[in-house]
Amino acid sequence: MARHGDRSEDAVVSQPQDRPISTIVIIIAMQTEALPLVNKLQLTEDLEPVFPKGVPWVRYHGAYKDLNINLIWPGKDLALGVDSVGTVSASLVTYASIEALKPDLIINAGTAGAFKAKGAAVGDVFVASDCAFHDRRIPIPVFDMYGVGLRQASSTPNLVNELNLKVGKLSTGDSLDMSPQDEASIIANDATIKDMEGAAVAYVADLLKVPAIFVKAVTDIVDGEKPTAEEFLQNLATVTAALDQAVTQVIDFINGKCLSEL
Ligand code: SAH
């Protein structure tokens, strides 16, 4: 659980499980999802960027209760002006944020598709129990498992019980739609929710040994009748409100607690 440069020293000195969580990094892919939370938590945009010059990544930060909150949004694509969604930007900002801010906990929050066959409905808020990829098919022994990249989220039994959140497995890929191959992999992953960032954030968090949790609000039903893009845009605003409320409750719950109490 080393978090700073000197890993051996950290392993002896700090026991992050046993002291209250202090610094949180929240990774959110879309501006529409991020801004209401920025306002609610009264965060301010960074004036002295901690990220390399020229990147579109934005950090909002502030003190909230006993917590030092950093909300990171990968920003708008420099060439096309749309949100930098997907796994590439998500892994980069997760890596850069951990390096710069040394968080005790990462929260990846966002919207997601979900499966009604697994009991999900639009507006539900899920906490992911684990994350895997569904579009990295490498049919060679062991590489196949590397492609799936299954990683467990930090365990939060008290948090999900207290806040009455649903728990499900998350499957991540770089497409909003779902090809038949993706569908087969999502079924193999036993996933209830589908997004474009979670497993990438989980990969980097695991690499750098920072605990991570995933809070996902359902904008669209993948196995429903409506086309995904249409349903997503239709529900984005209302579901974002549900997401922001849930993330605020999660932060309120975390405040003053150690990782082992979540
Ligand atoms: N048309 C949108 C594109 C957003 S991409 C726009 O106007 O900007 C979708 C984003 O929402 C990603 O960050 C992804 O994590 C999440 N998402 C919501 N529903 C999804 C689904 N069914 N499949 C994959 N990602 C989904």
TrEMBL record:
<protein>
    <recommendedName>
        <fullName>Nucleoside phosphorylase domain-containing protein</fullName>
    </recommendedName>
</protein>
<dbReference type="InterPro" id="IPR035994">
    <property type="entry name" value="Nucleoside_phosphorylase_sf"/>
</dbReference>
<dbReference type="GO" id="GO:0008930">
    <property type="term" value="F:methylthioadenosine nucleosidase activity"/>
</dbReference>
<dbReference type="InterPro" id="IPR000845">
    <property type="entry name" value="Nucleoside_phosphorylase_d"/>
</dbReference>
<dbReference type="GO" id="GO:0009116">
    <property type="term" value="P:nucleoside metabolic process"/>
</dbReference>
<dbReference type="GO" id="GO:0019509">
    <property type="term" value="P:L-methionine salvage from methylthioadenosine"/>
</dbReference>
<dbReference type="InterPro" id="IPR044580">
    <property type="entry name" value="MTAN"/>
</dbReference>
<feature type="domain" description="Nucleoside phosphorylase">
    <location>
        <begin position="23"/>
        <end position="251"/>
    </location>
</feature>
<dbReference type="Pfam" id="PF01048">
    <property type="entry name" value="PNP_UDP_1"/>
</dbReference>
